[in-house]
Amino acid sequence: MATLHLVPVPIAQDGADRPHAAVAVLPEATIAAVRSAGYFLAENARSARAFLKSIGHPQPIARLDIVEIGHESEAARFDEWLAPLREAPARAAVDAVLLSEAGCPCVADPGSALVARAHELGIAVVPWVGPCAIVLALMASGMNGQQFRFVGYLPQERGALRERLLALQREAERGETQIFIETPYRNARLLEAILEACRPQLKLCLAIDLTGPEQSVATRSIARWRAAAEATAQRLQRRPAVFLLCGGVPARAPRPPRQP
Amino acid sequence: MATLHLVPVPIAQDGADRPHAAVAVLPEATIAAVRSAGYFLAENARSARAFLKSIGHPQPIARLDIVEIGHESEAARFDEWLAPLREAPARAAVDAVLLSEAGCPCVADPGSALVARAHELGIAVVPWVGPCAIVLALMASGMNGQQFRFVGYLPQERGALRERLLALQREAERGETQIFIETPYRNARLLEAILEACRPQLKLCLAIDLTGPEQSVATRSIARWRAAAEATAQRLQRRPAVFLLCGGVPARAPRPPRQP
Question: How do residues A25-63 score in pLDDT, each as one tens digit?
């Protein structure tokens, strides 16, 4: 049996002015795990090739075995994709690397059903350190990191969105940080809905373009965001962002003196 | 105004056989941010000094300004600690680095109230990439990474613990991954309580000693863990671990084609 490696990739685009951004956000050990592999299960084959080139994979990229598993992978093909990791009469097992288009595989990204199947088959699963927008945003928000919840994408329909925001506000006011995301071109619309639905005292954190050239993280009350709504909407528009809500009650320190 | 940098530190101990583990799990950009700073706000001054030495800080460690803010920082001292980041008549502002004893500051760790104060004062807050046990565990669990919740530590009292586990099981069965931790010496007791309280079909993931020499991540049904309860309790005992519960329903892919 071989190992399924879960490897995060950069979350910000490399620009002409930041050609080494990819390498800068990945630890040496993560890069080494990718460089020594020859079999890749990629959400998107094209972005996977660009990533493998950026970290200087020692083999010619065209010679690597890159399987595109897509955004909504077909469960029916999991065993076929994982077959090279299992010993067969004719050949030894090989390691595989699972790659998202950006960030951590399986976290706000596809891949978890494939990993679940790997566990069922007894394949070793090894996660590697790299950028996760949710954690970067939470760390920098100043909000409760002892109790938090990631809820993914909110409903798009106006009434349902408002209902959901009011439900999230209730949880946030109990002290649990509520984290969500939206596709960049809908960010300004989501901000507008938040500023309309939520109470003035509630805290909203906007973490924009994390690890990118326009990175900013700001936490303010809804009342203060309302006063700068138009400028904020413009900054948010078409930029990746993470949204966080918390009740404004300072978090208590965790119970015991040590852990993750 | 200067910047408050939030810097993760390694989560596994360096052993004689892995002297460079610290550097291997931190990206180049994160290490550079620490090397260029001279003012540190540390949960624990001693472990901060050991970390600064391990990444080869260019200045003599004894000459660095390291303030121990402790596990339960006193809010009354936040402004004093943040004062060097604000320009004063007599001197320019300097950057500060916030360090936990292990992992990401503010995420299942102290620091968020200090960061919240930095936001109020208009100080720029910048998070850096590094190891987060919660994300590593979630990524490798094969459980739903589109909806998840970190609940910290569970109650210690037997009856309250059982009640809490049943409540987490209800949420897990609705498809949201439930993540929690315990101090290592209580891990075996927590495992026992989980195996007693939860339904046989529920999935439990145990992520043990992440990034360390004894790392393992395994996801199985409660029924299967019960069959190996004693050996598992021994492996868990006194090792850092993350516990995850999920209902076993495979997660649907997230809605839009791209994000964190």
Answer: 999 999 999 999 999 999 999 999 999 998 999 999 999
Alpha-carbon span A87 to A67, nearest angstrom? 19
pLDDT tens, B57-75? 999 999 999 999 998 878 9
Is B100:B111 a contact under the CB 8 Å cutoff?
A: yes
Decide if A192 contacts A182 (C-beta within 8 A): no
**Token pair for B38:** 């001279």
First to last CA, chain A: 29
Report ipTM (2 d.p.).
0.94
Dist. CA A82–CA B217, nearest whole Å:
18
Residue that has been written with the tokens 């809908």 in this structure: A186
- Residues of A in Cβ contact (< 8 Å) with B24: 27-29
Nearest CA in chain A to B134: A260
Residues of B within 8 A of A112 (CB-CB) are: 141-145, 250-251
Q: Indicate whether B128 pLDDT > 80.
A: yes
CB contact under 8 A, B29 and A28: no
Cβ contact, residue pair A106, B139, below 8 Å: yes
Residue type (1 letter), A127: P
Measured between CB atoms, does B210 come within 8 Å of chain A? yes
Name residue B151's amino acid: V
Q: Which residues pair with B125 in a beta bridge?
A: B4
Each residue's pLDDT tens digit, A120-130? 999 999 999 99
What tens digit of pLDDT does each residue of A189-226 get? 999 999 999 999 999 999 999 998 889 999 999 999 99
CB contact at 8 A, B160 and A163: no
The phi, psi pair for B233, rounded to 5°, reads -60, -40
Instruction: Say if the Cβ atoms of B102 and A28 lie within 8 Å.
Output: no
Q: Which residues of chain A are within 8 Å of residue B213 when distances are taken between CB atoms? A: none
Q: Shortest CB distance from B119 goes to which of A135, A148, A219?
A: A219
Alpha helices in chain B (DSSP H): 21-24, 28-35, 45-54, 78-82, 112-120, 133-141, 158-173, 187-197, 222-227, 229-236
C-alpha distances (whole Å) from A16 to each of A19, A237, B129 are 6, 22, 22
User: Can you give the pTM of this predicted structure?
Assistant: 0.94
